[in-house]
Write a structure and sequence with these properties.
Helix content: 25-40%
Radius of gyration: 21 Å
Low-confidence stretches: 1-19
CATH superfamily of the largest domain: Type I PLP-dependent aspartate aminotransferase-like (Major domain)
CATH architecture of the largest domain: 3-Layer(aba) Sandwich
Oligomer: single chain
Strand content: 15-25%
Number of strands: 17
Strand order of the largest sheet: 4-12-11-10-7-5-6
Distance between the termini: 27 Å
Number of helices: 14
Bound molecules: pyridoxal-5'-phosphate
Structural class: alpha/beta
Shape: globular
Number of domains: 2
CATH class of the largest domain: Alpha Beta
Length: about 425
C-alpha cells in the first residue's frame, strides 16, 4: 500500500479561509505569532460552541463534524458536562494518585465491564495511553530479553518520543533521531509481513483497528483473527490503539467489535491491552489503558505513574459522558448517522473530485483528488468543519449525538461546495 502521511505543519483549512477573509492578522493571531511555539498552522479563532455547532470571532457559525479530532463526543457545551464540571469543581478537582478517588474506581469498573476482565491505568492523553502499551510490553518481555514491538506502516500513536518511534511513518521522526530502538514496521493488513518480522526478541504487535491520521484504513477481519492467532502462538501481546477508532465511534465500543461483526470467531476476539483517549473525556484531557487478565498486574507498584491521570474531575466527566451515551443509545445513533453519511458520500463518488469513501459510523474518510486541504478550505468557507488526514483524505469525525438533519446539512454543503 503506497501511503503518504502529511505533517500537521501545513496550511490548515480554516487558516486558508480566514486568510482569504481577513488578510490582516487579528490581535489574537499576532499574539500567537509572537508567543506560541509554531508547531502547527492554525485556522479559525473559535469563541464558543453549542451542540454540533461552533462560532468564530467574526460571529460565523459552522457545523463542526471534526469534533476537535474525534474528541467532543457529546458536541459542545453539553449540559451534562457543564453540570458535572461545576459540581465536581466544588468538591475535588484534583487529589493525587496517592489516594483513592471514587470516580476513578467507578470508571475503571465501567471500562472493564465494557471491554472484558482486566484493569485500567488512567493518564491524560492518547500518547500517554499508548506509552502504557509500550511499557507494558517492555516489562512483560524484560526477563526473557524480549522488547521488540511490530507496528504498522502508516500508523500514528502520538507525539512523545516513544510513540513517534513506534509509529510507522517517517515525517514525524525527522530531526528527532536517535529514536527509541525496538520497533519494526510492516505494511498494515499484511499478516505474512508480521509473521516474517517476528524474531526471538519480539514481544508485541501494536496496531490501530482503523488507521485514523493515516487516512481511515480499516483492518480486515482476516488480519485481526490472524494476528490474534499468531500472537498467541508466539506468546506476544496484541496491543490495540483505540484512541481514535474506539469509544463507540464505529457504532460499537471498540472498532474490532464492528469489524468482526458476524464473522465466525469474531465475538471471541480481544486484544491484550487497549489505549483510549479523545472521546472518553469529551474535551477534558483524559487517557486510559485497559489491560486484559492475566497481564493486569504486570505494571506493579512504582513501575509507572502520573500526577494528573484519573483525577476526580476527569473521571467525573468521563462517567457523565458514558451515562449520556448509554442512556441515549448514542452508539446506535452514530451507527445510523454514519450509514446515512456514508451512503450520501458514496453517491458522490466519481463527481466533484471525490474518489472514494472509507470507514464506519463516526469515522469516515472521503478520498479526494490531490491534497485534502483545498477541499477542507472550501467546506469551511461554506460552514462545515472537517479534518484532514494522510492519503488524500478528508475526515468526518462527528460527535456521537449528531442528528439526521445535521448529516443532511453536511451532505448538502459537500454537494454544493466541492
Ligand atoms: C490513533 C491515535 N493514537 C494516539 C493519538 C495521540 O493522542 P494525543 O494527541 O491525545 O496524545 C492519536 C491522536 O490523534 C491517535 O489518533
Amino acid at each position: 500500500m503506497a501511503v503518504e502521511v502529511p505533517s500537521t505543519v501545513k496550511p490548515s483549512p480554516a487558516q486558508k479561509s480566514s486568510a482569504a477573509e481577513a488578510p490582516v492578522r487579528t490581535e489574537i493571531e499576532s499574539l500567537y505569532d509572537r508567543y506560541v511555539v509554531p508547531t502547527v498552522n492554525r485556522g479559525l479563532t473559535l469563541t464558543h460552541g453549542k451542540g454540533r455547532h461552533v462560532w468564530d470571532d467574526k460571529g460565523r457559525r459552522y457545523l463542526d463534524l471534526g469534533a476537535g479530532v474525534a474528541v467532543s463526543s457529546l458536541g459542545h457545551a453539553h449540559p451534562a458536562i457543564q453540570e458535572t464540571l461545576a459540581r465536581q469543581a466544588g468538591l475535588l478537582i484534583h487529589s493525587s494518585n496517592y489516594y483513592y478517588n471514587e470516580g476513578q474506581a467507578r470508571l475503571a469498573q465501567r471500562i472493564v465491564e465494557l471491554t472484558g476482565p482486566g484493569k485500567v491505568f488512567f493518564s491524560n492523553s492518547g500518547a500517554e495511553a499508548n506509552e502504557v502499551l509500550i511499557k507494558l510490553a517492555r516489562k512483560f518481555g524484560h526477563d526473557s530479553g524480549r522488547y521488540e514491538i511490530i507496528t504498522a506502516l502508516n500508523s500514528f500513536h502520538g507525539r512523545t518520543m516513544a510513540t513517534v518511534s513506534a509509529a510507522g511513518q517517517d515525517k514525524n521522526k525527522h530531526g528527532f533521531e536517535p529514536l527509541l530502538p525496538g520497533f519494526t514496521h510492516v505494511p498494515f493488513n499484511d499478516l505474512a509481513a508480521v509473521e516474517a518480522a517476528i524474531t526471538p526478541r519480539t514481544i508485541a504487535v501494536q496496531i490501530e483497528g482503523i488507521q485514523g491520521e493515516g487516512g481511515i484504513f480499516v483492518a480486515t477481519p482476516e488480519y485481526l483473527l490472524g494476528l490474534r492467532e499468531l500472537t498467541r502462538k508466539h506468546n506476544l501481546l496484541l496491543l490495540w490503539d483505540g484512541v481514535q477508532c474506539g469509544y463507540f465511534r464505529t457504532g460499537r465500543w471498540q472498532s474490532y467489535q464492528r469489524i468482526l461483526e458476524g464473522v465466525p470467531g469474531g465475538e471471541d476476539f480481544t486484544p491484550d491491552a487497549i489505549a483510549m483517549a479523545k472521546s472518553l473525556g469529551g474535551g477534558y484531557p483524559m487517557g486510559a489503558t485497559w489491560i486484559r487478565e492475566p497481564y493486569q498486574n504486570v505494571l506493579g507498584p512504582g513501575s509507572h505513574g502520573t500526577t494528573y491521570g484519573g483525577s476526580p474531575m476527569a473521571c467525573a466527566v468521563a462517567l457523565a459522558i458514558l451515562d449520556v451515551v448509554q442512556r441515549e443509545k448514542l452508539a446506535d445513533n452514530i451507527r445510523a448517522r454514519g450509514d446515512e453519511l456514508k451512503r450520501g458520500l458514496e453517491a458522490l463518488v466519481g463527481t466533484r473530485g471525490i474518489q472514494g469513501v472509507r470507514g464506519y459510523g463516526g469515522l469516515i474518510g472521503l478520498v479526494v483528488e490531490g491534497e485534502p486541504y483545498p477541499a477542507i478550505a472550501k467546506l469551511a468557507q461554506a460552514g462545515l468543519i472537517l479534518i484532514p488526514a494522510a492519503n488524500h483524505t478528508v475526515r468526518f469525525l462527528p460527535p456521537l449525538n449528531v442528528t439526521a438533519d445535521e448529516i443532511a446539512e453536511a451532505l448538502r454543503i459537500v454537494k454544493e461546495s466541492l
